[in-house]
Design brief:
The chain is an alpha/beta fold and 455 residues long. The protein folds into three domains: 71 residues, no CATH class; 209 residues, Peroxisomal Thiolase, Chain A, domain 1 (3-Layer(aba) Sandwich); 155 residues, 3-Layer(aba) Sandwich (Peroxisomal Thiolase, Chain A, domain 1). 38% of the residues lie in helices and 19% in strands. Strand 12, helix 15 and strand 13 form a beta-alpha-beta unit. The termini are far apart.
Length: 455
Amino acid sequence: MTTAPALTKELLVQILAEYGEREANEIAERVDSLELAWLVHSLEERYGLKLDLDDVQLARMTTLDDALAILGKARRHIPRKPVVVTGLSVTTAFGRGLEALRQGLAAGQPAFGPVTRFEVGKRRVDRAATLPGDPNLIDEVTDAVTQAIGQAGLGPGTTARTPLLFARHADQAPPRLTLPEHHAQAPHTSGTQIAKQCGLRDAARTYTNACVAASSAIADAAALISAGREERVVVAAGYFVDADTYALFDAGRALATDGHLRSFSQDRKGLLLGDGLGAVVLESTESAAARGAAPITELLGWGRAGDAFHVCQPHPEGLGMAAAIEAALGRAELTPDGIGYINAHGTGTPLNDSAETAAIRRAFGEAARTVPVSSTKSLHGHALEASGVVELAVSVLALQEGTVPVNAGYLGPDPACRLNLVVDAPRRVAAQAVLSLNAAFGGANTALVLGAVAA
């Protein structure tokens, strides 16, 4: 490949970000001067693409718009394997299983109650959405993975060729644990333990990147399958409300002092934590068809972007989330009008909800006035690292039931949150595609587009 015009670091970062490159800045810092020809070669190698660009096209890529237009056209001609979900299991404070979640969402009553799992007498807030007792996270996630594998109809041989991507909270209370206890609960060892017990090939990765951990794992799994690098991938995630994280959020004034998570509402006071875990089997449509497996939903698109605005505050204009939404819609080849429902991140904090509103309005334009929006965290609480898989299950139910969940706890409109919110009760919506959003500290954002499948 011949030498092409010089490429600045800034231009490289922007182009790689459009392709979902998570380490764009790191790559840009490796050398002082890069060339567009090198960029094309890197994209081909990293994503298994074949762009087939000639020297004339390379020479034309002197600006970001030029480069994206040419690379985008080349990318659209690359065969990509569609990705479907064939197995799904979920647990929330509403109970274990998809049916328990369906009933909880249909009732529209929040699952929050007094915390009894640990002492909260010295805390500002004493409410969360929890299961009874003190269940073991790894045991529960293992059960969820087993159920998802069973629903997908994977036999022992197929399971043994399938990797696990696991999302969970980082190490909890290491100073109070013995070394054997600490090792047994460490994120990297727990994923391996689950994979071994469920007969999976390995625990390829463990994600602890806060509230986008599960959705990042799902996006990575989809990318692996779409590019033909894996036939199928199991993604699992889990978070149970624990004393240390609860104390951290309480001390940080993030928990709602009125005991309600009021997403996008006036007078919202903050978030409330909630138990959540789940497992999902993703595979190519080709693989599912060969096994005679019935898809539950199709993962049409996914997008990830960061704004790096602040360590724990989103960009007030929602730039990162807007970019993630646009990337997901582009991959799905959908316009905003094609989305029938948005399952928002909606933590109930003043800064998050206003920034997310700005992101939706930026990405959707006029369609933001009409697309139904709700955050089911107002019902089942914030499951942190497991949010992505819990809310994927919520999105699947919205597609299957033709009903979108209520945005609970709503007190009235906030001028900074002008959206078509689903208030008072669930709403009948015959959506063919839904968008699920998540965001995390550090400016990380994810967007997943799910599509209905024929009955």
